[in-house]
Design a protein that fits this description.
By secondary structure, the protein is of the alpha/beta class. The chain contains six helices and seven strands; from the N terminus they run ααββαββαβααββ. It is globular, with a radius of gyration of 17 Å. It starts with a helix and ends with a strand.
């Protein structure tokens, strides 16, 4: 990984915390928590993810932020990883670890996260284009899945090649160090023979980006 890419990632982390502080400034704590839980509940229904969740599920929420899907996983044991967890707790009144007794929070970049656990469901939502090391992190996600386990990726994908290449050159989207199209993501994921695509949905169509969800299952053999 080049020094330039490392600096891009550090800038993105700084801007991420700044974005959350500005975004949450005028949002009442309890009202926001209720709204966000409803949002994730709706996501689970729309994507069909609930099919893979039960009380025995061990889940990993990668790049969870201060309001990730862990909010709605009340019946599961959850590990939630984000390099800014400690900063969120120090700077945002909307996030307190103690509000989620079933969640183990880890304040580390995913690349530095280590565990002996294998997970039944891994959520990586709005996070892959924030990774410090994109290829290494995707490889790590599939390696941490139980056989038969499910990987849920939500991604912002470029609709037009022009903007994808432009944003790679100039900081048009500095929050996201990695800029990819749908074909980039799907093509890359095909390189993992252990993963089979279960579903692909477009949840929102934007002017520059589409918000899409890919769900993969790790093969048992």
């Amino acid at each position: 990984m080049t020094i330039f890419n490392t600096l891009k990632w550090r800038l993105a982390q700084f801007l991420e915390l700044l974005w959350w502080k500005r975004y949450l400034t005028k949002k009442e704590v309890k009202e926001y928590a209720i709204w966000k839980k409803e949002y994730w509940n709706s996501f689970i229904i729309k994507t069909g993810v609930g099919e893979y969740l039960n009380k025995d599920t061990l889940a990993l929420d990668v790049g969870c932020g201060p309001a990730g899907i862990f909010i709605s996983l009340n019946e599961q044991q959850v590990v939630a990883v984000d390099p800014l967890i400690s900063s969120y707790e120090s700077n945002l009144e909307h996030f307190k670890r103690s509000n989620y007794p079933n969640v183990s929070f880890v304040s580390k970049a995913f690349e530095d996260f280590e565990t002996e656990k294998d997970f039944d469901v891994i959520f990586c939502l709005n996070a892959v284009n924030h990774f410090r090391d994109f290829r290494f992190s995707i490889e790590k996600l599939q390696a941490m899945l139980n056989k038969g386990g499910v990987l849920v990726l939500s991604i912002d994908v470029h609709r037009f090649l022009f903007f994808k290449h432009l944003f790679r050159i100039i900081p048009g989207d500095a929050l996201h160090p990695h800029q990819h199209s749908r074909s980039d993501y799907i093509g890359f994921m095909k390189s993992f023979s252990s993963l089979g695509l279960l579903s692909h949905q477009v949840l929102n169509r934007g002017n520059i980006f589409n918000y899409e969800v890919l769900i993969y299952r790790k093969r048992k053999k």
